[in-house]
């Protein structure tokens, strides 16, 4: 299906990795919602690898499909999506989020520049957080300072897109690959002084830090967090980040992980995640 360039009310992105379509709870939630929504939207499924799902995709004629089987960085994917599927609003979803059928219709009715859902994981609200405290009810905020959440469920207006591109050259920071893409978006958001943030709706989401993990997965998260902190220290330094880097480095020294210390130092000096493709 080819994108109709007429401006839609909302473009929706679901990034899938290492899953079949039917295994994505976000995809199932979108399919359940489509019958309640008119044609004023683009739904984009972006398969980030490693196996093609285009054969499955042929059954869904009303949905756009993209594939990058080499596991492209999330910031690059998000920016490509925003550029290719113009709309008044952009909604980003991971592949493991679940929401009610009226979630999309409420976003369409919202006049706010930013909309964030309550993120529920492990039967508790985990995000958004405002000034260090969890926002646990639907509300409207008049500033973005000290606001943080995850990317899944984030809905931004074309005005926010325009302001961020004007100030930073892109909406999401492409120096970050996986970890840090969400938090650095909110750092940027703080700088453009948006005063219309809607906290509404609920998304049930799988957050790895609240679920049992294998040692291999824990190691992966620790390494990716190290790259994230190295880049945040370079581009978005703060007392909080300095403390986190210090704590992470102490843990590495305690476990004699000198090679990782050098890897993180190299990442800091280069200014981008080691998996980023440099043309």
TrEMBL record:
It comes from the Bacteria. This is Glycosyltransferase. InterPro entries: Nucleotide-diphossugar_trans.
